[in-house]
Amino acid sequence: WYQRRVHGDRTMEKFNVAWNGFDTSAGNSFRSLHGDSEFSDVTLACDDDGLFSAHKFVLIASSKFFRKIILRSGQSHPFLYLRGVKYLLLQNIMDFITWKC
């Protein structure tokens, strides 16, 4: 909807924009980032020398732990070593984070 009001010499305009299916579209976009390292901006390293490219947005939106660590790092592309975590476990965690949305 669109609303326009004139008060003396002032004109106020209000817009209401709606996107039907936004939740579905946002979830699909979120999932499409999984496995796409082109725009990844964080690297996760595991105990078994595995490296996993990820997206800060995905990690921060899904985990208070990652949010705290990434915000504290202050780096544009942080490199996070996850001691005690094997690559297969991390891959399963990332799959869960991505597909639960």
Explain what this protein looks like in three dimensions.
- Helices cover 41% and strands 23% of the residues.
- The protein contains four helices and five strands; from the N terminus they run E-E-H-E-E-H-H-E-H.
- The relative contact order is 0.16.
- Helix 2 packs across helix 3 (64-73).
- It is of the alpha+beta class.
- Strand 1 (2-7) and strand 2 form a beta hairpin.
- The longest helix has 13 residues, at 87-99.
Brief digest:
The chain has 101 residues and is of the alpha+beta class. The protein contains four helices and five strands. The protein is elongated, with a radius of gyration of 20 Å.
Keywords, separated by commas or semicolons:
101 residues; alpha+beta; 3-stranded mixed sheet; two-stranded antiparallel ribbon; 4 helices; 41% helix; 23% strand; elongated
Span from first to last CA? 30 Å
**Overall mean confidence score, pLDDT:** 81
Kindly report the spatial arrangement of strands forming the biggest sheet.
Answer: 4-3-5
Which sheet architecture does the biggest sheet show? Answer: 3 strands, mixed
Order of helices and strands: EEHEEHHEH
Number of strands: 5
Give the proportion of residues in helices. 40-55%
Strand-residue fraction? 15-25%
Low-confidence stretches: none
Question: What sort of overall outline do the alpha carbons produce when their principal axes are compared?
Answer: elongated
Given helix and strand content, the structural type is alpha+beta
Rg from alpha-carbon coordinates: 20 Å
